[in-house]
Amino acid sequence: MSKNEKKEGCKSSGSDSRETPGGQDRTLLSRAAGRPVSRREFIKGVISSGATIAAVGYIAPDAGTGRAWAASPGAVERLISLQVNGRTRRVDVLPQETLAMTLRYKLGLTGTKLSCDRGECGACTVLIDDVAYNSCSTLTHSVRNRSITTIEGLEGPSGQLHPVQKAFVEELGPQCGFCTPGQIMSAVALLKANPHPTREDILISMSGNMCRCGSYDHYLKAIMRVA
């Protein structure tokens, strides 16, 4: 058999050929004609079409789409400005990030302690507009336009201790010291709101701060000394 005859034989064997006399792909024609599609082909088609649709917005987003995303419900800006200890700090904040996490791990203000992480022990207490808050239960995005003060912000111009800090030292308040920053911030907030509190006022105001060393009386006497 000649080479030409072999070629003609290959072309005439319709079972293996993928082209019609018009040069069209027989596979596509058979699919269009309703040939059953295998499970693998179906899954591959679904995946490829879904990926194409999902990628459209990333490949060529127009200005209108960008504005729609920015204005969508629940969308928040990640890079925000915070007023912390009298300074404006720019920081990248996740939508559900707590203020305690931002202060400690984004701004390096580690005086704010994390303990229970559920607003029960008071170790993470900071001042927001001179009011005591548990920073572990406060979202950072909710305080963007407010004044935040941490234990580091109580330092005087020349590095001197705040009167509450000094009184705590004199009354031997700190033991392990872990709860002390929160105790101090709560005491500062109390004295800002009520410069001359009674013993009962102090007990009520400081009740949200736990001390595992049991130095409650020392802290109480320190606040009374300042008052």
How much helical structure, as a percent, in the residues?
40-55%
Largest sheet: 5 strands, mixed
Compute the number of strand runs. Answer: 5
Overall mean pLDDT stands at 82
What Rg do the Cα atoms give? 35 Å
Describe the structure.
The protein is an alpha+beta fold and 227 residues long. The protein has a domain at 79-226: Beta-grasp domain (Ubiquitin-like (UB roll), Roll), CATH 3.10.20. The chain is built from nine helices and five strands; from the N terminus they run ααααββαβββαααα. Strands 2-1-5-3-4 form a five-stranded mixed sheet, sandwiched between helices. α6 crosses α9. The radius of gyration is 35 Å and the shape is elongated.
Annotation keywords:
single chain; 227 residues; alpha+beta; Ubiquitin-like (UB roll); 9 helices; 5 strands; 10% strand
Write the layout of secondary structure elements.
Layout: H1 3-12, H2 26-32, H3 39-59, H4 63-71, E1 79-84, E2 87-92, H5 99-106, E3 125-128, E4 131-134, E5 147-149, H6 163-170, H7 180-193, H8 199-205, H9 216-226
Parallel strand pairs: 1-5
Antiparallel strand pairs: 1-2, 3-4, 3-5
